[in-house]
Write a structure and sequence with these properties.
58% helix; 2 strands; two-stranded antiparallel ribbon
């Protein structure tokens, strides 16, 4: 209705100037001839409301009205067409054309000729052939060529759209300036002419620029495989201005080879994983990150050795990385500055980095979706701000509500703790430890500092493990002692880890399972076939039975070959029956104390036996100054436990300072 009303208004526009009465239309009239009629009565259009006087028009959307003095400034500055109309939508839809794959085109002579006439596909074939000639895989070369072709078409498409919009604006401006007897926003012939133009030279896309890019990349030592990875990640590099990429390549090579001291081969591997280094902006950002990490306690040689995480670190934004470092060093976490860098380069910090320091590549991938790049950037910034709010709340809750004084220790051991949601993840775990595991309030911070991964555990799964432990007649007091000494027991799987161990203990004759597990909780995490059964069979060969094992459950916590077999073989060489010495004296003491028990000397003979058995010379110390070598438990037995007067005691630290068997026992 508005369109027909506009036609009526334009039919008498040649006889009189428009007045203040207004009619509205959204799209400009097309192919309308002016009428010379000078006396046209008002027209009543069904559904249009009150009839309007002919010859009046304006567009409320763009603010156009009659030629009054208040609006002449707008006309003087240039009148633009509406942002969207049917002609523009039709034009944009016609630009989304599909291209036949190159592989199918090459199989047909006629199709190949058509491909060669298409400048974009000629560019595709040229890039693929050059990359394959220099050693790139055919699949990777074609993928890189497709990426460059799509980027090139997108650039020309944007240029074509800008020219089309300029033509529309010029047509609208001319119409409103002249206030002519007839007006055409954009005739069909003009629109079709613009739509048919692709603004590509008839000779096609010139390859001199791309040839110069290839020459500079290959001269720097990159292969076809490297260039294919670069073009897949950054296709705009192939269309650099004047084909000059030497600045970015030189900066990247200087950073990797000179600053970090990488070999050419390793530098190429880093570039393939992080192609953004070849751009001047990417190389500059990477240099800033290297300087920042060096000031945060990470040496450049350490960065160069860690080739796995190096490309990921160099791809981050320096400003975002600095913001994270400042947060970790703030009063909320209180992580020492020289500890921030080592934490950031650890593999376990990747989730934290991805949350608040997103990769440039991931931003580009997200920007290729239907949502515009500006919108994606805004959404990413909002997500980062939300992550920092969660991190701040988690640090405050741990320190102020749950009494964790050393939050830095917790974050160092488990960086993802900052990403946990306090009300739904941290608080339920603390309540579970207090109400169902019966830990005291002063013990909860110690457990969380010793094993912060506990905060990410599922409460329901931990409840099942606690129920199973209670079924072994473990009283609540002992349950809290077990969890305090060995928190990772709440992560063990009941069916695949705990039950097989209990079945093995029943098999060898253990009756009081609860007491045995209370005295050695890590045994529930041992493998029956790889650790427990081989040790048990070896003990039985020397005459030990389950009474000896029950008397000293920590027998199963010692390394089989390095400690158990070595000492039993030494006793055999001295013609001393192991049964006469006892498992506790054989295993619980250090090397010096063991030698005193067996030989009543300073341990030189036993140390010589170890050297000969291992086939290598160990550094000798003076007998009086030599530190005892305490055997380390295997796997999950990181904590050495003994039962002393009914109390579970961690003796892993005391063993280094103990000087006698009696103190250890």
């Amino acid at each position: 209705l508005l369109f027909f009303e506009t036609i009526q208004c334009l039919q008498m526009s040649g006889s009189q100037r428009p007045n203040q009465n207004k009619a509205t239309y959204d799209v400009p009239p097309s192919t309308i001839q002016a009428s010379s009629a000078t006396d046209v009565s008002p027209v009543q259009i069904p559904g249009a409301g009150t009839p309007r006087s002919p010859g009046t028009f304006s567009t409320q959307r763009d603010g156009y009205c009659d030629g009054t003095s208040g609006e002449r400034g707008k006309r003087k500055n240039g009148i633009k067409a509406p942002r969207v109309d049917s002609a523009l939508l039709r034009y944009v839809s016609e630009q989304k054309t599909t291209t036949e794959p190159i592989a199918d085109a090459a199989s047909d002579t006629n199709t190949l000729q058509k491909v060669q006439q298409n400048p974009f596909q000629r560019l595709n074939m040229y890039i693929a052939s050059v990359l394959m000639h220099h050693g790139a895989d055919a699949k990777e070369a074609q993928k890189a060529a497709d990426a460059v072709e799509e980027h090139t078409k997108e650039r020309f498409r944007r240029r074509q759209l800008r020219l089309y919009m300029k033509a529309r604006n010029d047509s609208w401006s001319e119409f409103f300036e002249n206030e002519a007897t007839f007006a055409l926003s954009l005739s069909e012939d003009q629109a079709n002419l613009i739509m048919q133009q692709n603004f590509v030279p008839s000779s096609g896309i010139k390859n001199e620029r791309i040839e110069r890019v290839f020459e500079q990349l290959f001269s720097s030592g990159l292969t076809g495989k490297d260039c294919a990875a670069v073009f897949i990640h950054t296709p705009s590099l192939a269309l650099s201005k004047d084909g000059n990429v030497s600045e970015g390549v030189e900066c990247a090579m200087r950073l990797l080879c000179q600053t970090l001291g990488l070999r050419r081969y390793d530098s190429r591997k880093v570039i393939r994983t992080c192609p953004g280094l070849l751009t001047p902006q990417g190389a500059n950002s990477a240099a800033q990150i290297v300087d920042m990490l060096s000031s945060l306690g990470v040496s450049r040689s350490a960065l160069a050795r860690d080739k796995t995480s190096l490309p990921s670190l160099l791809s981050r934004q320096p400003s975002s990385l600095f913001r994270l470092a400042a947060f970790l060093a703030s009063n909320l976490v209180r992580l020492p500055t020289d500890k921030v860098g080592p934490l950031l380069r650890r593999h376990g910090s990747s989730s934290l980095l991805n949350s608040v320091v997103p990769l440039e590549y991931s931003l580009k991938l997200q920007a290729n979706e239907n949502v515009g790049e500006a919108i994606v950037s805004r959404l990413v910034r909002e997500e980062i701000d939300d992550a920092y709010r969660r991190m701040k709340l988690s640090a405050e809750v741990l320190r102020e509500e749950f009494g964790v004084d050393d939050v830095a220790k917790v974050v160092t051991a488990f960086p993802d703790v900052l990403l946990l949601d306090s009300p739904t993840q941290i608080a339920p775990v603390v309540r579970f430890l207090r109400d169902e595991v019966y830990l005291k309030d002063e013990d909860i911070p110690k457990v969380l500092e010793a094993f912060p991964t506990l905060l990410s555990a599922d409460v329901e799964q931990m409840r099942k493990r606690v129920t199973f432990l209670s079924s072994l007649d473990i009283v609540p007091d002992n349950l809290s002692k077990i969890v305090r000494a060995f928190p990772s027991i709440l992560f063990l799987d009941v069916s695949t880890q705990m039950i097989p161990v209990i079945q093995f203990l029943v098999e060898i004759g253990v009756v009081n399972l609860g007491r045995f597990v209370t005295r050695l909780p890590p045994i529930l995490g041992y493998s029956v076939e790889r650790e427990l059964r081989p040790k048990w069979q070896y003990f039985k060969e020397f005459g030990f039975d389950y009474f000896d094992v029950v008397r000293f459950p920590a027998t199963f916590s010692y390394p089989f070959d390095r400690v158990i077999v070595t000492r039993f073989e030494y006793l055999k060489t001295r013609n001393i029956p192991p049964k006469a010495v006892g498992l506790d004296k054989i295993l619980s003491s250090g090397d010096t104390d063991f030698a005193k028990i067996v030989d009543n000397d300073s341990g030189e003979a036993f140390l010589a036996f170890i050297d000969g058995r291992n086939g290598m010379k160990l550094r000798r110390r003076r007998p009086g100054k030599r530190r005892r070598q305490v055997p380390k438990p295997t796997k999950m037995s990181d904590i050495r436990l003994l039962e002393i007067d009914g109390e579970i005691v961690d003796i892993s630290e005391k063993q280094d300072t103990s000087s006698s068997t009696e103190e250890t026992q």
